[in-house]
Write a structure and sequence with these properties.
The chain is α/β, with parallel strands linked by helices. The protein folds into three domains: 216 residues, Glucose-6-phosphate isomerase like protein, domain 1 (Rossmann fold, 3-Layer(aba) Sandwich), CATH 3.40.50.10490; 181 residues, Glucose-6-phosphate isomerase like protein, domain 1 (Rossmann fold, 3-Layer(aba) Sandwich), CATH 3.40.50.10490; 39 residues. Strand 5, helix 9 and strand 6 form a beta-alpha-beta unit. The longest helix has 22 residues. The chain starts with a helix and ends with a helix. Bound molecules: 6-O-phosphono-alpha-D-glucopyranose (G6P). The site of 6-O-phosphono-alpha-D-glucopyranose has 14 residues, from loops. Keywords: Cytoplasm, Gluconeogenesis, Glycolysis, Isomerase. Its EC number is 5.3.1.9. Its main location: cytoplasm.
């Protein structure tokens, strides 16, 4: 087991400090310290990161920053931007920052500047997306394309899907659909309303070996050919996004219709690459580039700001604090922004596939906790579902609130209600309601005696429940780019502190292997060696389907 970090004086200082912090209450910290918000909230342009409702003091941040120094966060940031192969288990550099590098500076991998290749693919994306959007690119029968279907899963789905949803006000004239699941219902339900003569498929897969995506692509091609009855139609209705030219060709998509990216782009960090093609098709290339520009601004901040004023670093450290020193097991993401409804799902992959690891970079078992379970729903919907637990449950659940100052809709009254709810929920979590306050309220409502006493404990809110509040002017392409990059770099910093490789994902392999062993058995092959439960389930399945 890797004991190293636990033995660091910086780690031990935080453990000792956590014992003291457990005695504090946020309500009192605010009452005693009028400067708390000013000192513990941080700005990047219009974006405000308010950490003051977290269970931290100035001392906590000081100690966490010492931990970051000890873990060499600045060195790791430099190594990432320098194109070092920091994804050591796959021997790859990690350069999603190159995909949005607007600085004019070269970024090199093994001495080769990758920027000309990045620029070339961006230029192709522009030409193609403009051709489809203006109708210059037509379907096989000469009809304009009206619908785009992205066939991809994981990193080849979640990012573009989340961004297209977030940027709906800029969307059109094309409609964009996403099919990820190998469950045929996903494809069938999507194709049901579509006209093959007017539909363009993007087969998006970094590896071009992913079972779900290739299965969906084969069925989509069959659907197209069934109706257009001409192999030549595929070239006008299928494009691919991948790092594997040969696999794309082997599948039957002309490499001329392929948009390339590279092995130094991690799947879950790939929406900035050609994987973002559905975004460009939906909102136009100028907006896609504004998204890149926003991310680049955050990259520059991350690369150059001192740790103590560095938003991704601070966000990461507060997360580490809860997981490793205060015992939190989960992290809630609560966008008070309906258009960010897919953000929690996106962050589930980004965070949990990156840092859900239990061996350190040297392969030793870690002696500390790593990534929490990330979950969430948009507000105000969540308030009417799981907020009960947040307010009165037994678990410590740190929450991230995200909110735009201005809504992008024609209903200003709605937006004020949304803002009021977000502020109120964060305040309620922090303040709680004391027994005396609850009693006074019940008395004011006319209760007394036994009836009051019976109800009283149920009306008390312990408070002291932490949240981070991220407030920005409006959700536009540039702000969205900044927000996503903020979280990406948070994840990287946490990986550094936890000493895990945030950029591999070996944990997804075993299930894939077993599925490919089970599939032929379901198709009538001999049953292999399985545990009694797997055999029993297979048998029951056969009985149900009459096999
Ligand atoms: O883009 P692809 O190669 O098809 O991969 C799609 C997804 O599947 C894999 O199993 C990984 O867990 C993800 O990181 C990846 O994003």
């Amino acid at each position: 087991m890797s004991e190293t970090r636990l033995g660091w004086p910086e780690w031990q200082a935080l453990e000792a400090h956590a014992r003291a912090v457990r005695q504090l209450h946020l309500r009192r910290l605010f009452e005693e310290d009028p400067g708390r918000f000013e000192r513990l909230s941080f700005r990047f342009d219009d974006l405000l990161l308010d950490l003051s409702k977290n269970l931290v003091t100035d001392e906590t941040l000081r100690l966490l920053l010492r931990l970051a120094e000890r873990a060499d966060v600045p060195g790791w940031i430099a190594r990432m931007f320098a194109g070092e192969r920091i994804n050591h288990t796959e021997g790859r550099a990690v350069l999603h920052v190159a995909l949005r590098n607007r600085s004019g500076r070269p970024i090199r991998v093994d001495g080769e500047d990758v920027m000309p290749r990045v620029e070339a693919v961006l230029a192709r994306m522009r030409a193609f997306s403009e051709a489809v959007r203006t109708g210059a690119w037509r379907g096989h029968t000469g009809r304009r394309i009206t619908d785009v279907v992205n066939l991809g899963i994981g990193g080849s789905d979640l990012g573009p899907r989340m961004v297209c949803r977030a940027l709906r006000p800029w969307g059109g004239p094309l409609r964009v659909h996403f099919v990820a699941n190998v469950d045929g219902a996903d494809l069938a339900d999507t194709l049901a309303g579509l006209d093959p003569e007017r539909t363009l498929f993007i087969v998006a897969s970094k590896s071009f070996t992913t079972q779900e995506t290739l299965t969906n692509a084969r069925s989509a091609r069959a659907w197209l050919l069934e109706r257009l009855a001409d192999e030549a139609a595929v070239a006008r209705h299928f494009v691919a996004v991948s790092t594997h030219r040969e696999a794309v060709a082997a599948f039957g998509i002309d490499p001329a219709n392929m948009f390339e990216f590279w092995d130094w782009v991690g799947g879950r960090f790939s929406l900035w690459s050609a994987i973002g093609l559905p975004i460009a098709l939906y909102v136009g290339m100028d907006r896609f580039e504004a998204l890149l520009a926003g991310a680049h601004e955050m990259d520059e901040h991350f690369r150059t700001a001192p740790l103590g004023a560095n938003l991704p670093v601070l966000l990461a450290l507060v997360g580490v604090w809860y997981v490793d020193f205060l015992g939190a097991e989960t992290q809630a993401v609560l966008p008070y922004d309906q258009r960010l409804e897919r953000l929690p799902a996106y962050l589930q992959q980004a965070e949990m596939e990156s840092n859900g690891k239990s061996v350190d970079r040297a392969g030793r078992r870690v002696g500390w906790h790593t990534c929490p379970v990330v979950w969430g729903e948009p507000g105000t919907n969540g308030q009417h579902a799981f907020f009960q637990l947040l307010h009165q449950g037994t678990r410590l659940v740190p929450c991230d609130f995200l909110l735009a100052a201005e809504g992008g809709d024609p209903y200003p009254e709605h937006h004020r209600i949304l803002v009021a709810n977000a502020l109120a929920q964060a305040e309620a979590l922090m303040r709680g309601r004391t027994e005396a306050e609850a009693r006074a309220e019940l008395e004011a409502a006319g209760l007394s005696g036994e009836a009051l006493e019976r109800l009283l404990p149920h009306k008390v809110f312990p408070g002291n429940r932490p949240s981070t509040f991220i407030l920005y002017r409006r959700l536009d392409p540039r702000t969205l780019g900044r927000l996503i990059a903020l979280y990406e770099h948070k994840i990287f910093v946490q990986g550094v502190i936890w000493d895990v490789n945030a950029f591999d994902q070996w944990g997804v392999e075993l299930g894939k292997q077993l599925a490919s062993a089970i599939l032929p058995e379901l198709e009538g092959g001999a049953t292999g060696a399985h545990d009694a439960s797997t055999v029993g389930l297979m048998q029951h399945w056969r009985n149900l389907v009459g096999g």
